[in-house]
Amino acid sequence: MTDQVKSYLEKERARHLEEVIEFVRIPSVSSSSEHKVHMKEAAEWLADSLRKAGLEHVEVMQTNGHPVVYGDWLHAPGQPTALVYGHYDVQPAEPSGEWETPPFEPVIRDGKLYGRGATDDKAQLYTHIKTVEAFLQTEGRLPVNIKFCLEGEEEIASPNLAPFLEQQAERLAADLIVISDGPMHDEGVPSICCGLRGLCGFQIDIAGPKNDLHSGLYGGGVANPVSALVELLASMKDADGIITIEGFYDKVRPLTDADREASQPLELDDAKISSELQVPELYGEKGYTFLERTTARPTLEINGIYGGYQGEGLKPIVPASAGAKVSCRLVDEQDPDEIMALIRRHIDKHKPQGVTVSIQQSHRGKPFFIPPDHPYIQAAASAYTDGFGKAPVYIRSGGSIPIVEVFSRVLGAPVVMMDFGLPGENMHGPNEHFHLENFDKGIATLCRYWRELQSLPGQA
Amino acid sequence: MTDQVKSYLEKERARHLEEVIEFVRIPSVSSSSEHKVHMKEAAEWLADSLRKAGLEHVEVMQTNGHPVVYGDWLHAPGQPTALVYGHYDVQPAEPSGEWETPPFEPVIRDGKLYGRGATDDKAQLYTHIKTVEAFLQTEGRLPVNIKFCLEGEEEIASPNLAPFLEQQAERLAADLIVISDGPMHDEGVPSICCGLRGLCGFQIDIAGPKNDLHSGLYGGGVANPVSALVELLASMKDADGIITIEGFYDKVRPLTDADREASQPLELDDAKISSELQVPELYGEKGYTFLERTTARPTLEINGIYGGYQGEGLKPIVPASAGAKVSCRLVDEQDPDEIMALIRRHIDKHKPQGVTVSIQQSHRGKPFFIPPDHPYIQAAASAYTDGFGKAPVYIRSGGSIPIVEVFSRVLGAPVVMMDFGLPGENMHGPNEHFHLENFDKGIATLCRYWRELQSLPGQA
C-alpha cells in the first residue's frame, strides 16, 4: 500500500465504519416477502456507494427476483480484469430473542461490529468498495480492471444468478472472480479457501388425518405424522453418524494418508471447540476428525422440524401433519440432483404407512475446488502475507457457495476466495458480528492483491 | 319425563341454547395465562347459572389454580346423592386458521353448535344444569340429592383437583359421581363408558450448541439436537407399531377371546374411518383392530415436535435445541409414574452423544374401570333407553379423564359416565361442535336417571 493510500484510509476510517453501520441497518432479508422494500433500499444504497467510490456504469439490474448491483472501472488496458462478487442480502434474524442487541441496530462493542449481515457479507463486501475508493481518490486509477457483481439472493440459494450470468456473460467477462464471503481458518491464521462443499436442500412434508385428532379417541389407531417423520429421518443415519442412503458416498473420494498429512497442521482442538459451543463433546461420522467432518466429508443435517402442538404445556393430539427441512453438504464429485434422486429412492423404500409423504428440493449447488498452486492463488497468498503479516494456509471450507461453482462454470474463470471473517462470528446465528481489525487488514490485503495481479497475464 | 317437565323444556329451549352460546363465547383456555380473566368470567357465569337453576350454596371456590364452581340441592332425605362433575375450561383453539368460523364466536349450523368447548365440555355440562332447572321450576324438587363440582383445569390435567377433593371431602361426599364429558359410541348408538385409559405425558428437551450454527461450517462435526431427538423418539417404537420401552407392557392384561367376542358388535368399519379422517389407511400396533388399539391397548404418541428453522424456505443451520411433547395412554394396571420411570430408563440407555437431554413429566392419570352390571350403571342403561329410544352399549373409551380415577379413589364412590357427545365432533381440534339433538336427548336421559336412582339405595 502506498503511503498516500494508507493515510487516506486512516483519515477516512471513521466515515467508512459509519457507512458499514448504515448498510447493516437495512434489514435486507431476502427470504421474506415483507422485506422486499428493504431489498430495494439496500440495492440502491449499494449502487450509490459504488458511484461515490468512483466506479462507472453503475446500475441496479433487475432479475426475476431481487436485483443485482453492477459497477466497473475498466481503464487498465493489458491488465487482468477481476470480477468482485458479494451479496447484500442477509439471513433472517430469528430467533430474535437471543440477540443481545437488536439485529438491525448495529453497534460496535470491543472492536467488533454486531448486527445481522455484519460478517455475512456486508462488511466483507464493503472492504472491496473502500479499496477501490482509496485507489481512485488518491492515485486516480486502479492497478487492474475491476467489475462488481453484487446480488441479493445468496441466502436463498441464488435462484436467478445463473440465468443472469448467462445473459450478461459479455458484460461480466473477467479473468478471475474474487469473493470475500466466509471466515478465515482461525484468529491470526489467514487462509485461502480452495474448496467448498456443495448443497442439496429439501423439505419433507407428511400429511396425516385431515385435522388434529384427540389422542385419547384416535391415539394408537391412526398413523401419527410426527412419528412417521421421525422414523423416516432416523432411517437416514446409523448410530455411528454414517448416512445410510444407498449410494450416498459413491462419488466421495476417500481421504488419503497424504490428504490427512497435509491438513494435520490445521487440526483444531476438540476440547476448545466443544467448550466454545457449550456442548458436552463433539460428535460426528465415526473415523474422522472435526476438520475432516466439517470440510472433506458430506453431511445430512436436519435444519428444522415441526408438527403438532408447540405451545406451553401439552396438547394430547395426533397431529394432522409434520415437516422437516434437511440439507446435505456435498464433496468431490457428488451432484445435488443425483443425491436428491437417491434420497427420493430411500424415502420411497422407507415410505411410512398411513400417511402421505411429499418432498420438495429447494437448494442445489455443486462442490468446488481450485488448486493452491494456481498463480492467482499464489498472488493472493502474497497479498495476505502483506495485509496480515503472516502467510496464509490453504483450506477447504465446509460451507457451500453454490454460485462459486456457477461462476467458474458460466464465466469460465477461476474463483479466488479471499475471506476476512472469523469462525465464531455467528454467521446465520444470533449476535452475528465482524472483527473490525480485519476490515482494515482486508483492505490492505486487497490493495496489495490488485498490485500483485498487475504482473500476471490476463485475457483482457 | 313428566308432561310438565317436558313442556317446560320445550318452551325454554331457545333460551337454553342462547345460554349455551353465551357460555361457549367465553374463551376459557386454562393452559394460557393470557386467558386468566376469561377463566374467572366463565366461573362467575357458571355460578350465576347454577343459582338461576335453583341450586343452593352456590360458590366460586378458590384453588391454587383456576376456581371450582360448587352448588347443591339436598332436600331428598333417604335418597342417593349424586355429585355431577364437569369442566368449564377448554383446549387452546390453535391452529386458529383451520376454523371455518371463529372458535369463540359460536354459531349453529345444521343443528350443530360450532365453537371451542361446544362438546368438550360446555354443552354436555349444561344438560345437567338445565335438567335441575326443569325439575325445580316445575315440580319444585329433585328426585335425588345433587351436588355440582365444576372445575377449570381439566384440560391441563387438573393439577389442583385432587387436593381440593381431599380438603372438601365432607362437602362433596356422594353415593355416585356422574360425568358427561365424552362421545357416545356412534351416532344413534348410545353407550355407557365403563373404562378409560390413563395418561402419562411428558416433554423431552434436547440442548445442543449455545446457539444455531452455520451448517456449512459446523455441520457434521457437532451433534444436531433435532437428529438426536429423532433417533431417541424412533428408538421407542418398532416397525410394527410396538412400543420398545422395556417393561412397558408388563402390566397390560392380554385381550382374551371373551374380550374380543364381547366387543365384536362394536367393531368399526376401517374404510369408513380412514375416509372420514382422509388418511390412505389406518395404522397401529400389529395384531389389533382399530377399536382395540384405541381403547384396550396402550399408546405412545408424539403430540408435538419442534426445533430449528420453521419459516419459509430453508435455513442451513445446526439448531441449538429441539423438543417434543409425548403422551402415553395407559390401560389396566399400568401406572403413570412407573411408566415414566421406564421411559426415563430407556432414554438413559439410549442417551444420544454430544447433547444434553432433559425430561419433564406433565400429566399423570391412572386407568379406570367400572363393571357394567353395577346397579348405578344399569339405572343409566334404563335412562338412555328412555332418552335415546335405544338400549346403550357398554364401551371402554380410549381417552383419559384422570380425575375419574381421582374421584373414585378420593371420594370412594363409583363414577358413572353418561356421555352425550359424538365421535367426529372434533374435540381438541378445529371446528369442534356438538349435535344439539343430543342436548335434548341428554336432558331427557338425565331426567329419567334421577328418577331411576330414587329406587336405589344410597349411603346418605
UniProtKB/TrEMBL annotation, chains A, B:
Keyword Hydrolase set for record: yes
GO molecular function annotations of the record: metal ion binding; peptidase activity; succinyl-diaminopimelate desuccinylase activity
Leading EC class: hydrolase
Coiled-coil boundaries: none
UniProt keyword terms in alphabetical order: Hydrolase, Metal-binding, Protease
Biological processes annotated in GO: proteolysis
Keyword set includes Ribonucleoprotein: no
Protein's recorded name: Succinyl-diaminopimelate desuccinylase
Native organism: Paenibacillus solanacearum
Gene that produces this protein: dapE_2
